[in-house]
Specification:
With 494 residues, this protein is of the alpha/beta class. Helix content is 30%, strand content 25%. It has a six-stranded mixed sheet. A five-stranded mixed sheet has the order 2-1-3-10-4, sandwiched between helices. Strands 7-6-8-5-9 form a five-stranded mixed sheet, with helices on both faces.
């Protein structure tokens, strides 16, 4: 029997993450005896808002890693994002399967009707994001106020402070608390759950607000020469999560690395593509950037004519609004288009999910608080669980009346769709060499007008559109882009 001595921080969340590591090891290796010891780090002892600036990188990890090097313990459980991007020790890492990496903005329900908000965060990245949120939440301004502490203490501070309206948190941390919190410390969990219910959640889309590099992933650190332990840990190493986190951290290292930077970097899947979203400030030039990089080579070919060539002139259907009667009974609603939407269509406590960035911004202009986004990845993408929606109901999806395609959700028609192809669109359809389809309905209609499109270059977004078109066009001949803008950049010869 192999004995493993595990070291971890002593916080509520750290104990949860340690239990997750123990479960993973025990499930794959029955013949192990595990001992756990806890220790506070500088980051736990110094709760001042400027702790990062005083102590530098690794305030939650360095002292623990030193215990490993001294052979006082065999294994350490870390939040991967807390580790310095450059490891100078003779240690190695494996990763558990990554949880949801996104940030969550929690707004006190008592503050929802305010015009401006004060949000607690000690992260420069999240403080920077607050400046960008006016297009996503219906508030005139959002100011940051430094706050530190464990997930439950941060919630409690905001609840009990009338001058603060919300807080930024890691979604993975919240999810883990609801998953294992009652088993680790039910007293703490009960208070955490009670406080959490006093907030409305806004889950930030990765495409616009990438998280800290490696956020949402648990790393297990061990001595590189511990061959017996290495064999065990390799069984639980989630290679895809590990590689994605390493790649995000390499990107961060370009700017020096560390949580003190106002830079986010997150890799997300798009059918068979990996996309690196990044946003922040270049310390060398002091200029801000917002990038999207497809990490796998796209089989693109530049052509002179694409479809659509101009979204302003593009028209294939006429949309007619319908009267909604049952909408008010729905708690969780996916909005695929902002056409014909108004505030009065939703319940006071409706949980609203936008299909993507454009729909989110349009709903926000209408004064509607959007709670989450599918981020243009399709209706199966990272749907929130009960803790956020406070509903066991499956989401309902607002869509067009003629939609006959399969869906995981109950469809609520709020407009009708009828063919109405403009002259400019028809001309574009018959001259284009490469096509981007934003819906299967548009693809079907176009095929009737010009069947030889099947022999041309075709692309579409992920989700149901991809699923439906890929039945007709072989997957290897169908490019997938997250947006029309990405398609245009890769396929149009200028």
């Amino acid at each position: 029997m192999l004995k493993i001595k595990i070291l971890s921080r002593s916080s509520f969340l750290a104990k949860i993450q340690t239990q997750m590591a123990i479960n993973a090891i025990s499930n794959k290796n029955k013949n192990t005896k595990i001992e756990v010891v806890y220790s506070d780090t500088i980051g736990d002892q110094d709760m001042s808002p400027h702790a990062w600036e005083k102590h530098g990188f690794g305030i939650f990890t360095n002292s623990l890693s030193q215990q490993l090097v001294k052979k006082n313990v065999d294994l350490i459980v870390h939040s991967f994002k807390d580790l310095p991007v450059k490891n100078k020790l003779k240690t190695s890492f494996v990763a558990l399967q990554r949880d949801d990496p996104r940030d969550v903005l929690l707004i006190k329900k008592t503050s929802l009707k305010k015009k401006s908000l004060v949000i607690g965060t000690s992260s420069p990245r999240r403080a920077y994001y607050l400046k960008l949120l006016k297009n996503y939440v219906p508030y005139s301004s959002l100011k940051s106020k430094k706050i530190r502490g464990n997930i439950q203490t941060r919630l409690s501070k905001i609840v009990n402070n009338s001058s603060e309206d919300g807080v930024f948190m890691s979604k993975a941390a919240i999810d883990r608390a609801f998953l294992l919190g009652p088993k680790i410390d039910n007293t703490i969990f009960k208070q955490f759950k009670k406080d959490f219910k006093k907030f409305t959640s806004v889950i930030m889309p990765l495409s616009q607000f990438p998280a800290a590099a490696a956020q949402g992933c648990i790393a297990l650190e061990y001595r590189s020469n511990n061959k017996n332990l290495k064999k065990i840990l390799e069984k639980i190493n989630h290679h895809e999560s590990y590689q994605n986190c390493i790649q995000e951290r390499k990107f961060l290292a370009h700017w020096g690395g560390g949580c003190s930077l106002d830079i986010g970097a997150s890799i997300e899947e798009n059918v068979y593509q990996k996309i690196l979203f990044s946003r922040g400030r270049d310390n060398k030039t002091n200029l801000y950037f917002h990038n999207k990089k497809y990490l796998e080579k796209i089989k693109a070919k530049k052509v002179k004519n694409i479809f659509p060539n101009d979204l302003k002139k593009y028209q294939m259907f006429y949309r007619q609004p319908l009267v909604l009667k049952k909408m008010l009974n729905k708690n969780v609603v996916i909005v695929s288009r902002a056409n014909f939407i108004n505030k009065n269509m939703f319940k006071k406590d409706s949980y609203i999910i936008a299909s993507g960035d454009s729909t989110w911004k349009k709903l926000n202009k209408l004064g509607i608080l959007v709670n989450a986004s599918l981020d243009n990845f399709g209706e199966e993408y990272r749907l929130p669980n009960y803790a956020y929606t406070q509903s066991l109901q499956k989401p309902s999806k607002l869509t067009y009346q003629e939609n006959k395609f399969e869906s995981h959700f109950k469809k609520i028609p709020h407009y009708s769709l009828s063919p109405s192809v403009s002259r400019d669109t028809i001309d574009n359809l018959f001259t284009a060499e490469s096509f981007y389809w934003m819906s299967f309905s548009a693809f079907q209609l176009a095929l009737k007008l010009r069947p030889e499109i099947l022999n041309k270059r075709n692309a579409c977004g992920p989700g149901n559109t991809y699923k439906q078109i890929s039945i007709i066009i072989p997957k290897e001949q169908l490019n997938v882009y997250l947006s029309y803008e990405d398609f245009r950049e890769n396929e149009l010869k200028i």
